[in-house]
Amino acid sequence: MSKITQLQKDICLIELNLSGITNIEFSYSGGGDDGAIDDINYLNMDGDTIIINKEISENIINILEDTADDLLCQITDWWNNDGGYGELTLNTIDGDYKIKNNVGNMTYSAEFYEGSFLTNKPPKYL
Q1: Residue 108, burial from CB neighbour count under 10 angstroms (0-12, 13-18, 19+)
Q2: Using CA atoms, how far apart are residues 17 and 42, in angstroms rounded to an integer?
Q3: Shortest CA distance to 30 belongs to which of 108, 109, 88, 83?
Q4: Which residue in 16, 29, 42, 49 has the fewest CB atoms around it within 10 Å?
Q5: What are φ and ψ of residue 90, in 5° steps?
């Protein structure tokens, strides 16, 4: 688990909102004994992709990636054996997120989680 503070998360979401980013979609995949976040898309209120620029600091991106990685490590194992894939969608306005996790056991099953980006509580299984 990373050592990201609540204040860092709060500032991160404020900066993203000031840049017009209201949602972030993280896609991830894994298998064997390895997994990672593959792609991150930043979206505005209309659902259009925003190309991040110099206004979004590398520090903000690191906070997002580290927090998302911490959350994904707390759900059903998608990175070992047959692996899996999924999406974590973060609402930057209220800090809530949802995870659609597909785990491989010769077949894939979808799981759904939600929680708040602003707290250190594990994702809640729906």
Answers
A1: middle
A2: 11
A3: 83
A4: 49
A5: -110, 125
Q: Give the residues across from 59 on adjacent strands.
A: none
Spatial distance between the Cα atoms of 124 and 8, rounded to a whole number of angstroms: 22
Contacts of 110 (CB under 8 A, 6+ apart): 100, 101, 102
Residues forming a β-bridge with 84: 30, 103
Give residue for tokens 């929680």: 115
Q: What is the pLDDT of residues 90-113, one digit of tens each?
A: 999 999 999 999 987 766 778 999
Per-run averaged pLDDT (10 residues), the chain, 126 residues: 85 92 95 89 93 76 92 88 91 95 79 92 90
Query: Domain of 24?
Result: 6-125
Instruction: Kindly state the tokens that stand for 122.
Output: 């594990």
Kindly state whether residue 1 falls inside one of the protein's structural domains: no
Domain membership of residue 115 (yes or no) is: yes
How many domains is the chain built from? Answer: 1
